[in-house]
Amino acid sequence: MKINFTKKQFETLIELVYAGHWILNSHRNEEIEKYNEVEQLIYSFAKPFGLEHFIEFDKKLDGYYPTLEFEDSMEELIAEYDDRAFWDELVDRLALRDLTKEGIEGKSNEEIMERRIELEEKYEIEFEKHHLNRLKIEK
Questions:
Q1: With the C-alpha atoms ordered 120, 28, 34, 76, is the resulting torsion angle positive or negative?
Q2: How far from chain centre, in Å, is Cα 25?
Q3: What is the full per-residue pLDDT of the chain (139 aa) written as tens digits?
Q4: What percent of the chain is predicted at pLDDT more than 90?
Q5: Contacts by 45-50 with C-beta closer than 8 Å and gap 24+?
Q6: Could you say which DSSP state residue 30 is in?
Q7: How far apart are CA 46 and CA 57, in angstroms?
C-alpha cells in the first residue's frame, strides 16, 4: 500500500504522532515499544519532506528525535491539553466521590447519572469562579 501526503499533511502527521506518543508514553518509566516503532518510522520520512527542522537523526542514540524548535512549537498545545485534562479529571473524581458518599443503592441509572451531572456542574462552576483557591484538605 502507498499513501501520498503533501508536505503540510505530513507536517500535521508528525504533530499528531508526537502528541499521541507524548500522551501514551510521557508518564511511563518504560515506554510502550510498538508506539516507538511507528513514531520512528514516521519520523524517518521527515528529511525527504524537508522537515529536518522538526525531526533530526541522532547518531549516538541511533534514532529520530524532535528538535527543540519542534518541541517548543508543540508546548502550547500540550499545555492546553494538560490544563483541560486536569480540570475535567478533578471535577469527575470529586463528583464520583460525592456520589459514592451519598450512596447509590436503590437508585436507577438515570437518577445516578442525573445526580452525577449535578455534582459535576457544581464543581465546574466552583473551579471556574475560584480555581483551587477554596479547595481545602481536612485533617
A1: positive
A2: 10
A3: 899 999 999 999 999 999 999 999 989 999 999 999 999 999 999 999 999 999 999 999 999 999 999 999 999 999 999 999 999 999 999 999 999 999 888 899 999 999 999 999 999 999 999 999 999 999 8
A4: 91
A5: 45/10, 46/10, 46/14, 49/5, 49/7, 49/10, 49/11, 50/7
A6: S
A7: 10
Distance between CA 39 and CA 21 in Å, rounded? 7
Query: Is-contact 58 65, C-beta < 8 A?
Result: yes
DSSP assignment, residue 26? T
User: What percent of the chain has a predicted confidence (pLDDT) above 70?
Assistant: 100
Residue position matching grid coordinates 462552576:
125
Residue type, 41: L
Q: d(Cα 2, Cα 69) in Å, to the nearest integer? A: 30
